[in-house]
Specification:
This protein is α/β, with parallel strands linked by helices and 473 residues long. The chain has 15 helices and 21 strands. The structure holds pyridoxal-5'-phosphate.
Length: 473
């Protein structure tokens, strides 16, 4: 080959690294259930006779999706080939029309924000709790949703994230009942929770809780390829004809059979006795690991806070580790550099290990040994604890209006009084401080400076010095 192939090189290096994976995808680079070498390249086919068509399924794909729906307890299930991102776009476009008002959990994923731009929606934001005892974003209060829907009956649908990025689950059953009492639709981005259907040791799934439309990233916690996802319909409140139409609007006309098959076999596997037993074993092992780590000096793994009424359940697929005298980002970095263990993410306070049914005893034992060693030997550094009380900015125009306007990059101090055209998101809490369409105020400016002084990671700041943002001209 004449052209250099840096991606191939990087992947070869990753293969050689052979690290322990506590990050996505859920197959952990170990087990994708079948020997793909037997199928590739001929499996990379197109809609030839006998192979059905994901966009208009009438044969094997229809049958497969119907089987999947039965497994998840859905009225209908659709395989996605563009991650939960694509499935979120489809779901949002199905439950709304341009100009609609939606109640959206403020710490939703970027794909929901982008979906609101694509579908020209006007958001009302539902702010989750920030738990000051543990410096972590927790859940939402059902009563607050009831209040907002009573005060603003023109809201068409509610969009929630469950579980959140830290594995925490709000009281979704009560929330679903409230939303349905108001005759609204509940969409749940359950990207992180496809495994929860398969174990009664997990919090209930969004479909079990009564959600109308649910999105799963199969690739996050099941042994499925990156980019695979599912869209489930839970009730008759969803117009299936409209969904089919929006599915076609947002899906490639050449959907991958590799992804379609990976969706199918990962679900079939999880529905098998082996799949369920492996998941249960991993949950029990994770619990044991958490107990052991919590006995180690300097180490704290989050196990809940009974005083926080927004935490209704905890998805044990996430192990949230902190070490006294270390930032979360330092823990994550050191685990890779010194112990060859990759974690999913980190913030100022925590490092997060993401498990799946494919993790093994050896993975966990290496994690425990590494954390023990780090807690014993890593230098102690004073961590400045910051109170996260974020200002709630005013919406001046819809995210789409801001997004499609003339935009410019300005220094933070010059942004005061202007309308943001892109988000600024500090970690923690991972909740946008400001988003497209909202007013940039002096309070927000001061808050960003405070976070910067304390070295928090802030996504969305531009320029070499990371002291600019994008605003509406
Ligand atoms: C809550 C949530 N929703 C949606 C997505 C998008 O998922 P995907 O990467 O499968 O497109 C993510 C990705 O991290 C996520 O965390």
């Amino acid at each position: 080959m004449k052209m250099k192939t840096p991606v191939l090189e990087a992947l070869d290096n990753l293969k050689k690294e052979n690290s322990v994976s506590f990050h996505m995808p859920g197959h952990k680079g170990k087990n994708t259930l079948i020997n793909w070498g037997d199928y590739i390249p001929f499996i990379d086919t197109t809609e030839v006779t006998g192979m059905d068509n994901l966009l208009e399924p009438r044969g094997v794909i229809q049958e497969s999706q119907e089987n999947a729906a039965k497994v998840f307890g859905a009225k209908a299930t659709y395989y996605g080939v563009n991650g939960s991102t694509g499935s979120n776009y489809i779901a949002l476009a199905t439950i709304t029309k341009p100009g609609d008002k939606v109640l959206v959990q403020r710490n939703c994923h970027k794909s929901i924000y982008n979906g609101m731009v694509l579908n020209r929606l006007t958001p009302v934001y539902l702010y989750p709790e920030y738990n000051e005892n543990y410096n972590i974003i927790t859940g939402v209060y059902p009563e607050e949703i009831d209040k907002i829907l009573t005060e603003q009956p023109d809201i068409k649908a509610v969009v929630l994230t469950y579980p959140n990025y830290y594995g925490l689950c709000s009281d979704l059953k009560t929330i679903a009942d409230i939303i349905h009492k108001h005759n609204k639709v509940l969409m749940v981005d359950e990207a992180h929770g496809p495994h929860m259907t398969f174990s009664d040791k997990s919090p209930i799934s969004a479909l079990q809780a009564g959600a109308d439309i649910v999105i799963h990233s199969t690739h996050k916690t099941l042994p499925s390829f990156t980019q695979t996802s599912l869209l489930h319909v839970g009730s008759d409140r969803i117009d299936l004809n409209k969904l089919r139409d929006r599915y076609q609007l947002f899906t490639t006309t050449s959907p991958s059979y590799l992804f379609t098959l990976s969706n199918e076999i990962s679900i079939a596997y999880m529905d098998s006795q082996e799949g369920r037993e492996k998941l249960d074993w991993n949950i029990e092992k994770a619990k044991e690991v958490i107990q052991r780590l919590n006995k180690v000096d300097r180490v704290k793994v989050f196990t809940g806070d009974p005083t926080d009424k927004t935490i209704f359940g905890i998805d044990i697929a996430k192990i949230l580790i902190s070490i006294d005298g270390m930032k979360g980002s330092q823990i994550k970095k050191k685990l890779l550099s010194d112990y060859n263990i990759r974690l999913e993410m980190s913030d100022y306070y925590y490092a997060l290990a993401y498990i799946s049914p494919m993790n093994t005893d050896e993975d966990y034992e290496r994690l425990v040994a590494a954390i023990e060693d780090m807690a014993k030997n890593a230098p102690y550094q004073e961590i400045n604890y910051i109170s996260i009380e974020m200002p709630e900015p005013k919406l001046i125009m819809s995210p789409a209006q801001a997004y499609y306007s003339h935009k410019m990059q300005v220094e933070l101090k010059d942004a005061i009084g202007k309308v943001a055209a892109a988000p600024v998101i500090p970690y923690p809490p991972g909740v946008p401080l400001i988003h497209a369409g909202e007013e940039f105020t002096k309070a927000i400016y001061d808050y960003i400076l405070l976070l910067m002084e304390n070295g928090l990671e802030i996504v969305g700041l531009m320029g070499n010095e990371k002291d600019h943002i994008i605003v509406v001209e």
